[in-house]
Amino acid sequence: xxxxxxxxxxxxxxxxxxxxxxxxxxxxxxxxxxxxxxxxxxxxxxxxxxxxxxxxxxxxxxxxxxxxxxxxxxxxxxxxxxxxxxxxxxxxxxxxxxxxxxxxxxxxxxxx
Amino acid sequence: xxxxxxxxxxxxxxxxxxxxxxxxxxxxxxxxxxxxxxxxxxxxxxxxxxxxxxxxxxxxxxxxxxxxxxxxxxxxxxxxxxxxxxxxxxxxxxxxxxxxxxxxxxxxxxxxxxxxxxx
Lengths: 112, 119
Known about the structure:
The complex is a heterodimer of chains A (112) and B (119).
Chain A: E1 4-5, E2 11-14, E3 19-25, E4 32-38, E5 45-50, E6 54-58, E7 61-66, E8 71-76, E9 85-92, E10 100-102, E11 106-111
Parallel strand pairs in A: 2-11
Antiparallel strand pairs in A: 1-3, 3-8, 4-5, 4-9, 6-7, 7-8, 9-10, 9-11
Chain B: E1 5-7, E2 10-13, E3 19-24, E4 31-37, E5 44-50, E6 53-56, E7 65-68, E8 75-79, E9 88-95, E10 109-110, E11 114-118
Parallel strand pairs in B: 2-11
Antiparallel strand pairs in B: 1-3, 3-8, 4-5, 4-9, 5-6, 7-8, 9-10, 9-11
């Protein structure tokens, strides 16, 4: 079992719709959770981080964390064609382990 | 510039050669990380520095890989006797701090990467 799992997609949504990206992780000790966006040929760009159970909103983006279910998601409201990219979920353990463990990413396609 | 910078942006080498990849972190960031990303995969951790010392090198695949950060700022990833399987994008990231209470200070910001091709 991979430590961080994401559906590779592609996830196709029409412009203006809500895109829902999901991620599960295996390490119950994980403390910090990050969503990065990566355009083709570019490096990962941070979108959001979340540490506490529940929702965290930032503009059109909402991150949701459920530690009991070991599940983290990213919702993108009013999706735009410019949101088309690969979304990487990354998980960090407790303070003794600083590395980020990434999923393989979900490719999102937003059609005009 | 305010971001993480990496040089070269592209490197083509022949099997068996030695390469050095450089990373210049965000000014003031004490933690520096190296990752490797293969096509269709997420970045894979290689090594992390806190200051000048390598705090965790558990991701280095073998002893052909080595990294240094002698003055606690710029880091160099060194690969000896390169193999075709080393071809990937090598990403560097930095954060203001690495440990302590979770917060924005531990967020890792990535550089543009070095695309390494071993022929």
